[in-house]
Amino acid sequence: MEMVKVADEMAGKVQKTEQDAFVLDRRRRLHELVVALIQQQGELELLDGEAPRLDVAASSAQAHDPARWLDRNRRVLQRYQALVRSAVTIDALLDAE
Q: What's the pLDDT tens digit per position in 78-97?
């Protein structure tokens, strides 16, 4: 009975190792696809990490408008999400072939 238990544990570890290898391989493929898609983009914007200050004078408020800052970062993030979704779709289509 003890041998069966040990064999089951070993089989579970082998299966987990295979699953881990599959996940790592898929992650690597997705990463390569995303990088390839990014390289095809012209100029890709980065998120603006400099948050606008809310205590600025009214004359320069338009340049530091929090709504504009949030909207720009939202658009940049959506563009990256679209790249990732495209990579996932391409990978799924390749797996289906």
A: 999 999 999 999 999 998 98
pLDDT tens-digit profile of 27-80? 999 999 999 999 998 888 888 888 777 766 655 555 678 889 999 999 999 999
Q: What angle (nearest 5°) sits at the alpha carbon of residue 85, between those of residues 37 and 27?
A: 80
Residue 35 identity = V
- Cβ-based neighbours of 49, under 8 Å, separated by 6 or more: none
Cα–Cα distance, 62 to 69 (Å, whole number)? 10
Closest C-alpha to 86, from 44, 35, 34: 34
Q: What is the pTM of this model?
A: 0.68
Spatial contact of 85 and 27, defined as CB atoms under 8 Å apart: no
Rounded CA separation 18/71 (Å) = 43
